[in-house]
Amino acid sequence: MKVSFIGLGVMGMGMALNLSKGEGEGHYEFIACDPNEQALEQFKNKGLKTTTNILDTTDSDYIFLCLPNLDIVKTVVLGENGLLKHLKPGQSIVDFSTISYLGAMEIAEACKADGIEFLDCPISGQQSKSLDGTLSLMCGGSEDIFNTIKPLLDRMGSQVIYMGNNGAGQLTKMINNCALNICVASFSELLPVGVKLGLDPEKLGDVLMTATGSSFASKALIPKILEGNFEHGFSLGRAYKDMESMYEVLIKSEIPLPTLSGTMQSYQLALQSGHRDDYKHAMVKFYEDMLDVRVRKEGF
Known about the structure:
By secondary structure, the chain is of the alpha/beta class. 49% of the residues lie in helices and 14% in strands. The protein is elongated, with a radius of gyration of 21 Å.
C-alpha cells in the first residue's frame, strides 16, 4: 500500500510526520509533497521519499491533503493539472483542509463521477496537537473507506469520528467553529464593559475563565487579551469566512440563527476597524476603542 501527504504547513507538517512513521514500521510506502523544498527537509533527513510535484502522488492508494483554502483544494484536485485527471477508480482522496460544506460536496461529486472516493476530514486542535498526534478528526464520506483508513487516521488524531456521508465532516467543523466564534465574541464585548464600569480586568478575566461563564475559548484567549497578545494564529478574517460558509448553508436551507447573525456583525465591526489579520480575539480592541478602555493586567 502507498500513501501520500500533500501540504506541509502549520498543521500538515506534524500530521505528515506522524503518518510517515508507518513506513518505518513497514506498514506502507509513504511520500511527502509540498511546493516548498524547505518543508521537505525533515522527511528527506529521515530517508523518506519527497516531491514538489503533486502528480508524483497519483499512484498512491490514499492521498491525504492539508491545504489552506477551498480554492487551493479545488486546484489540486479538480484543476487542469490536478489529481483527478490522473487517478483511477478505487483510489481515495482524504482532505483535512477546512473548506465549506458546499465546496466539499462539489468536489466529492466530481470525484465520484470518476470512481474516486473523496472524504472530508477537517481537523480541530492546535499545532502542538498535530505534532503529538492528538487532533480531533471529523470525517464525512464512504464509511467503508473510513473504516479501512482509520488506523492511518489514528496516527494523527486521538479523537477520530465518522460523522456521515460526504460533507458531514465539514458541516461538523463549521458548527464547532461557529460555536467557538460566538464564545469569543461574547467575552470580547463584555470584558471592556466591565472595565469601563470599574472592574479590575485581571480579576474579571479570572472569573470568566473559571465560573459558569467559562469556556475553552475564554481559558485559551482571555490570558492573551490580558497580555495584549493578538499575534496571528487563526486570523479574525479566516474566522469570519467560517461563518460565511455556515451562512451559505443556512440561506439555502432557510434556517434563521439570530445568535450567529449577531456574532457575524460583531466580527464585521472588528474587520472594518482593521483587525482582519490579528487573532480572532482581537475584536476586543474594537470595543476597547469604543469605550476608551484597555483590558490588560498590570504591567501590560
